[in-house]
Every structure is written in C-alpha cells, then in structure tokens.
Amino acid sequence: MITETPLVIEYLTDNSAAKQQQSWNQVLASATKTVEALLVEVAVPLSELNLRQQACVEFPLLVPQPFINKIEKGNALDPLLLQVLPQSAELEEAPGFIDDPLAEKHSNLQKGLIHKYHGRVLVLLSTGCAVNCRYCFRRHFPYQENRMNKNDWQATLDYVAQDPSIEELILSGGDPLMLNDQQIEKFISQAEQIPHLQRLRIHSRLPVVIPQRITKNLVKTLQACRFDCALVLHINHAREIDSVLISHLNTLKQAGITLLNQAVLLRGVNDSVAAQTDLSKRLFHAGVLPYYLHLLDKVKGAHHFEVSESAAIKLHHQLVSTLSGFLVPKLVKEEAGKKSKTPVPVMHLLPLKAGD
Ligand SMILES: *Cc1c(COP(=O)(O)O)cnc(C)c1O
Ligand code: SF4
C-alpha cells in the first residue's frame, strides 16, 4: 500500500466551528479489514462467519469508515453492505463465471497499460483500491505482475508518445487515487509533454469511500494541467452520496472538472426502477452525470450479483420512459475483443407488439 507523507490536516469550513478532519491516508490506514469487525460495526449478526472468512482468502475484505457510516445499522440486506460484505456464494462455481472475463491478459501488452479502444489508453496507475467491492471484475487480475515503478511510467508514456492516435489518457487501476498527490502531479506533468494528448480521465471510487481524498492539492493539479479533465466516479446507490461527498465534489466542479458516473447493475443492490431513478437524480444533485450502467462482468465469485440481460433491458426501458434523457445512463456490457463497450439493445429499438 502506498502511504503519503507528510500528513495533511484539512479543515472543513462549514457554518459551525471549523472541524478538524483526518487526512485521507489516515482514514485508509484505519479501514475495517475483518468480517467480524464489519458485522459488529453495522450491528448485523455474525452469521456464516467461517464461509465469509473463507471468501476473504482470495479477495480480502476492505471498507473505510466513511462508507461504513452510510450503511443502515441492523440491516443485513443494506444495498451498501451487500457491495462489501463477503458471502458464502462467492465460493460457489457458476457456469460462465471465470477468472478473466474480459481477457485483459491479451491486451495487457505493456506492463500497467491496456490499449483496447481507439484514441484512448487505460493506465493501471495503482494496483490497490481503498475498498474491495465483492463484484469486482478485477478480483483475479494479475495485479502483482502489473505493479508499476518509475521506469514503467516512462515506458507507458513512451508507448503513448509513439502513437499519435492516442488523445486521451485514462488513469485507472485498481484505483489511481491511491497514489498520493505528488505522484499524480508528477505523472500528469510528464504526460503533458506528449503533444497529441488532449484529455485526462480519472476512474475512481475513492472519493465515494473516503471523500477527503479530493484534496485541495489534487483539485489544483487537475485545474492547472493543460488537459480537459473528467473524473468518472463509481457510485451504485443513491445512499452512497452524502453531504460530505457533495461538498468535496463541488470543489472539483468549481475547478471545471467534468464529473461522470459509472455504476454496475447488481442484484439486490440497485436492480429496481426506484433505486436507479433515485441514483440518477441524486447524482445530478451532486453535479454528476450518469454515464454508464454496466452489466456485471462474469467474474468467478460474483454470480450472486447477476441480473439477467432481459431484466436489465426491461429496467432500462422503464428508466427511459421515466427520466429526463440526460439522467439515463447508457446500458452497456463489456465483451472481450470488442472495440468499445457493447451497447445493450434498448427495448424501444426492438419491434414492439401493437398496443405496447
Ligand atoms: C472501458 C474502457 C475504456 C473507456 O471506454 P469509454 O467507452 O471511452 O468510456 C478504455 N479502455 C479500456 C481498456 C476500457 O476497458
Ligand atoms: S474500487 Fe473498482 S477496481 Fe477497486 S475493488 Fe471496487 S470495483 Fe474493483
């Protein structure tokens, strides 16, 4: 894990007296790491403890306190809890659910870099995350082999520099905001030397689990760089968006950073019209536009989150007929070897029966 020094003490300026806040890496360091501690925190009975712990062997539990605070106490089916609590179902084999559903090993030509789509490359800037989402499609990704050091940064940037078709850098991971501000600033300033790069995109879930990660320095770096910047958040449920997150997102918005969201459609978490419409409205309230709603990648250990494609299409159709157009995320799935995310056909494009 990357640690940041020196520790920055930040202050929230609200109407009441300025409140002292822990720095984001302190919050990260004290994140909950055991099933038992999490269940105690959220006041849920310690059921299936052995099986849950077994599920952690391959993919550990990790949840920072600000996310735990948003979980409803005593509710074993809380949609936020379900995203982070290991289940015995993770140990079951399910047909079609495999280790590397996106066959990323094949497009991972250069360490720390995935170039699958035209005009943009995904840089795996950090191998870690601040939260371990149980449905994560990268739960078996060979991160250890992709751990980048300073020389690899150079090799990545060299790869980008020799291909003028690449206009956009996507910082991803893991979670790229696991790097500290100085490291991010350094990477961006090196990338700025490549004349054909125009856009910088950051894919991160970190602000959702530790809002303090949006530091003044990070905002300043993004505002000062010559790129058009977007932050693509990963929020699956309206309740993940609280006033603390909103105030931090505001600083990014004021700095001219475009804020987008991608969510994963998850059974029991957000697979209802109410959950999706609430999410879209809450996102917009926070200054974020819905971008993608992903069908679950069929990764081993996540089959219990699956929503069938036909149910997803039906749900999406209901969103189209309920929400303003700009509040409807694009329903997509990821298929190995494709040149883009695959749009999942929307129902109104399919032939409708008379009277529909
Ligand atoms: C998802 C993804 C992107 C970004 O795709 P957009 O449709 O532009 O959001 C880029 N590269 C890879 C490898 C991806 O998986
Ligand atoms: S933050 Fe993203 S990459 Fe990290 S575990 Fe969650 S879904 Fe996976």
CATH superfamily: Aldolase class I
- Rough outline: globular
**How many helices in DSSP terms?**
13
How do the helices and strands follow one another from N- to C-terminus? EEHHHHHHEEHEHEHHEHEHEHEE
Polypeptide structure, described:
By secondary structure, the chain is of the alpha/beta class. The chain has one domain (about 95-350): TIM Barrel. It has helices at about 25-30, 35-40, 50-60, 65-70, 80-85, 105, 150-160, 180-190, 205-210, 215-225, 245-255, 275-285, 310-320; strands at about 10, 20, 115, 120-125, 170, 200-205, 230-235, 260-265, 290-295, 330-335, 340-345. Strands 3-4-5-6-7-8-9-10-11 form a nine-stranded mixed beta sheet. Strand 5, helix 8 (about 180-190) and strand 6 (about 200-205) form a beta-alpha-beta unit. Mean pLDDT is about 90; it is low at about 1-20. Bound molecules: pyridoxal-5'-phosphate (PLP) and iron/sulfur cluster.
